[in-house]
Design the sequence.
């Protein structure tokens, strides 16, 4: 994955925090490398590329099968806006990054809450993040959302203890998504519980026009914001403000 990944720990003892980070990073890197080998759309030996080439028995693999089922379900849940075949061949990339961050967070980071000194955790993959804070802690994550017209400016500030934040837009990767012809949406941010699903809806929202995005927001009770030339539009639990 050609994106940066950042791990943040909030601890009450710096030395233990440094020790934990030293032991965590190799585990996270190893899992990211494994996921890259399996699900890259660019490595000819990956499961995805082999499936594209006709090796259908790869569907027997439980993890591959789970991802395959999720992205196909998302295709129907988003009224075809999230399309794992948008390139003409099966490509779950739009889901795998968020899924990978959420998976690593839950399997490698969350167990650290067993330690009294660990108060909060965050794993950020290219600006999309999964984060959590202990119920007993008053710490809260403060997250700035970059403006799509000027990434040096913040268009919204979020205050979240536990959850996931996914943003899809054109400011970093250009027009990497084929949006509907009459869409004027520049960026969509979804706030949810899990990053995999939040990433799906952020991607679908960027493909949509405002009418279809409003339909998705209402249907799936989404929370977040989107940006157009007319300004910043907020929505919470399906209600558009």
Sequence:
């Amino acid at each position: 994955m050609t994106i940066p990944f950042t791990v943040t720990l909030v601890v009450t003892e710096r030395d233990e925090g440094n020790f934990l980070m030293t032991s965590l990073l190799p585990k996270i890197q190893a899992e990211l490398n494994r996921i890259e080998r399996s699900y890259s759309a660019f490595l000819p030996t990956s499961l995805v590329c082999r499936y594209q080439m006709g090796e259908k028995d790869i569907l027997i693999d439980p993890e591959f099968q789970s991802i395959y089922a999720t992205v196909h379900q998302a295709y129907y849940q988003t009224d075809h806006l999230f399309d794992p075949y948008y390139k003409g061949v099966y490509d779950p990339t739009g889901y795998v990054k968020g899924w990978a961050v959420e998976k690593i967070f839950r399997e490698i980071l969350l167990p650290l809450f067993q330690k009294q000194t660990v108060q909060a955790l965050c794993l950020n993959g290219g600006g999309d993040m999964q984060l959590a804070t202990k119920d007993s802690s008053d710490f809260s994550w403060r997250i700035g959302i970059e403006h799509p017209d000027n990434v040096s400016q913040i268009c919204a500030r979020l205050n979240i203890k536990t959850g996931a934040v996914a943003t899809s837009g054109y400011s970093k990767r250009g027009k990497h998504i084929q949006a509907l012809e009459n869409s004027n949406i520049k960026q969509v941010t979804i706030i949810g519980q899990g990053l995999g699903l939040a990433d799906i809806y952020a991607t679908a929202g960027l493909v949509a026009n405002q009418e279809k995005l409003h339909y998705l927001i209402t249907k799936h009770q989404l929370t977040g914001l989107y940006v157009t030339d007319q300004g910043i539009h907020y929505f919470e639990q399906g209600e558009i403000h």
